[in-house]
Amino acid sequence: MDHPERGGVTVLEPADPAVVPAPRAEPEPASRWARALSGVGYRAPRHTSPAERLVPPMPDGPGVTPEVVEPSPVLARLGVRLPAPLWSWLCRWAGWLGPVGVAVFAGVLRFTNLGGPHALIFDETYYAKDAYALWHLGYESSWSDDANGLITAPNPAVPLRTDAAFVVHPPVGKWIIGLGEHLFGMSPFGWRFMVAVLGTLSVLMLARIGRRMFRSTLLGCVAGLLLSVDGLHFVLSRTSILDLVVMFWFLAAFGLLLVDRDKSRARIAERIEQGLGGDWWHLGLRPYRLAAAVCLGLMTGTKWSGAPAILALVLLAGFWDSSARRLAGQRAGLRNLWDFCWSALSVGAVAAVTYLATWTGWILSSPEPGKGGYLRNWAALNPSDTWGWVPDWARSLWHYHHEIWHFNVTLTSPHTYQSNPWSWLLLGRPVSFFYESPKNGQAGCTTTECAREVLALGTPLLWWAGIAGLLYCLYRWLMRRDWRAGAILCALAAGYLPWFNYQARTIFLFYAVCFVPFLVLAVTMMIGAMLGRADSSPDRKLAGATGAGLLVVAIMWNFLYFYPIYTGQTIPMDDWRARMWLDTWI
């Protein structure tokens, strides 16, 4: 700074030690093992009260943000002055206004030209028609070979038949898709509408989940923004297939368990203040955990690939309860084992009942031949002396599930776009949902040859940054005992690792949309580390904010660059080739 009275030199006056805060001292590692780990980055947690460790304060909201908030110095420097009541209201509700704003942005992206391409693309040929049959018959039926052409014709017709069809996925996702068809008709917009709604809501949920996990509205909004511009999530949000529905229920269950975690730990903190500690069995009514179990049942009722998430979240909830008890001063023992057993019993039982309820349409269909669901009359045709006491519908449903299991584990037919899960994080082999090569004068083509494609491809820079984010989470979990990193890794593993058990099965990259939100949370956690701690120096904060901002902007640019091949726009063939960064994408 310019100080003419002092020769142009900034002079620092000696500060009064009494008014200068001392730097926060890091706790000395207590054990020899901890001291050895400190050489590779381990830092023991700061000493705080058990109540503060159990439930860290939220960043803003009613009951947290003061009724009157001081004006923002940043806005003042920009010359923006808001009325004090409005500014205080915005600060108090920022935890909702920010995520809702991000969700609106995601919704605009997903609903713009949702009806294009005007065709049954990829597996829509199964699920859109199965959904229509469910809403009209209560079970999936067979369709004629010319059904697709009749449905998408200028004067559409729906050739619904009543003879049952063998389908290999439970009905929840198709009931949801069918709701859009019921509201808007058997059209591309109709069968994609509800999936786009769930895709938009999942962005809102992730923003709120990120805010709760990281105790930062900013980082929550960053997580929602990154999910809104992920190409795989975007394409699946605009296509009526089941995997986006699986992802939605998984994310909802995870978020509800997070809320349950905070609620139960707050209850334990109250008991600590009352001097009761953690030496008690029940943590009270857990409505959010039961709601999470319902979501897990609906997830499995959409696709069986959701079943491993039940085990993963049961274990996660049990570990969270056990950790809370340790913070309350209780040693490991029967009560910790009780937490795991009760978590498994309550979540597992509610999820199982929910899953069974999703088959109500099939169960209530007629057991007469040709008038009910597939194999609905199997028990009547196959009487049993041993299992005759079991209701016919239950025996038939069990046999149907056996047939579904056999199909799923023996599916090895080669497919052009199949891929191995080892390549998923690298985006080794995306799936083309729709492709056309219009010539000059066709479909808006103005060059010799053009391309129209809907490619199920994650935003490359986001996914490749996600690999670094996962490594960072692994470090935080192993070296810093960070529960947030452990939760992210647990949920991602539940959606990803089971696919490695099916090396010979025909599987596709778009199955990975189930764990995309947790990949985004890993990137967001890494961005939070880039921004630095609250007590970091201004230079450190500036460097971190610059790096984090550049990463987010680069990911958004990358999404916009690939936007034409996410939405089936007609582009010159040379532009299409320029977007094929890897040979395996063609």
TrEMBL record:
Pfam families: PMT_2, PMT_4TMC. Keywords: Cell membrane, Glycosyltransferase, Membrane, Transferase, Transmembrane, Transmembrane helix. Residues 11-27 have a biased composition (Low complexity). Pathway: Protein modification; protein glycosylation. InterPro entries: PMT-like (IPR027005), PMT_4TMC (IPR032421), RgtA/B/C-like (IPR038731). The keyword Nucleotide-binding does not apply. Residues 169-259 form the Glycosyltransferase RgtA/B/C/D-like domain. The chain crosses the membrane at residues 189-209, 216-235, 241-259, 305-324, 336-357, 461-478, 485-502, 508-530, 542-563. It is found in: Cell membrane. Its EC number is 2.4.1.-. It comes from the Bacteria. Residues 1-27 are annotated as: Disordered. This is Polyprenol-phosphate-mannose--protein mannosyltransferase. The lineage of its organism: Bacteria, Bacillati, Actinomycetota, Actinomycetes, Kitasatosporales.
